[in-house]
Amino acid sequence: MEIIQMDQASLSSVRAAAAAILERPSRVHLLVNNAGIMAIPDYRLTPDGHELQLATNHLSHFLFFKLLEPALLKAASPQLPSRVVTLSSSAHNIHEINDADNYNFERTDYNPMIAYAQSKTTNIYMANEIERRYAERNVHATSVHPGIVVQTALAQHMPPDAFKDVDESALYACVKSVEQGAATTVWAAVGDKWKSGGGKYLADCAVAELYVDGEDKFLTAGYAAHAYDVDEAKRLWRDSLRLVGLPEEEE
């Protein structure tokens, strides 16, 4: 299998990668949005003018889906629907999405974890909105919390004392191997349960339950109350179309 490399900060590279896929004769039944960066310590904008975490973790995935949308729809049928799986995180519990004129922290101070949390909420909203818009055409979407997987480079920008106030036993109970971290993604991608439905936030190979007050927002497998805000998901979809340079759509 050939792997198509993309520059995570450039929407032009997303367009190039999508074009390379669409040139191939094979069908597209599954899209797993797995690219991600976390807690970039300094404020950075991409060449397209977007905050780096929002651009990498959401806008690139959104554009990639929209460019592959015709192929996903063409391949989809009631017998074999197409699926979109987008990796989110428990970090979405920390923050919702910014106002439309502040996605890039134009009006508030940049905070690495708030920026990351915003991008993880966008992942849930994108999946929920795909399900709402495309389910009747046999394209289904879910969002996934893989857990804390320390054997990757995702947390390379986290400060050494990032978890100094976290109970060690609770932290270690949440740590997963790469294989364990991938399990929920694989379940969402091929499990029979998601053959004809979606729009759910998944964790530990199950549909996540509502976050319980008092739990650590980063260690919990639960979802925030804002995760299923339909109006905010619609708003993000509209704004994302604008931010990646695509025309408006009917809701």
Account of the protein in words:
The chain is of the alpha/beta class. It has a single domain (27-243), classed as 3-Layer(aba) Sandwich (Rossmann fold), CATH 3.40.50. The chain is built from 6 helices and 7 strands, in the order αβαβαββαβαββα. It has helices at 11-22, 52-75, 112-134, 168-174, 178-190, 230-243; strands at 30-33, 82-87, 139-145, 148-149, 175-176, 201-203, 206-207. The chain has a 5-stranded mixed sheet with strand order 1-2-3-6-7, with helices on both faces. It has a two-stranded parallel sheet with strand order 4-5. The longest helix is centred in the N-terminal third of the chain and has 24 residues, at 52-75. The protein is globular and about 50 Å long. The termini are far apart. The model is unreliable at 1-6 (pLDDT under 50). Belongs to the short-chain dehydrogenases/reductases (SDR) family.
Write the layout of secondary structure elements.
Layout: H1 11-22, E1 30-33, H2 52-75, E2 82-87, H3 112-134, E3 139-145, E4 148-149, H4 168-174, E5 175-176, H5 178-190, E6 201-203, E7 206-207, H6 230-243
Parallel strand pairs: 1-2, 2-3, 3-6, 4-5
Antiparallel strand pairs: 6-7
Helix pairs in contact: 1-2, 2-3, 3-6
Which characteristics define this entry?
NAD(P)-bd_dom_sf, oxidoreductase, 251 residues, SDR_fam, NADP, alpha/beta, 10% strand
CATH topology: Rossmann fold
Terminal residue distance? 37 Å
Top-tier CATH class: Alpha Beta
Number of strands: 7
Number of helices: 6
The stretches of 5 or more residues where confidence is low (pLDDT under 50) are 1-6
Shape: globular
Q: Hey, roughly how much beta strand do the residues contain?
A: 5-15%
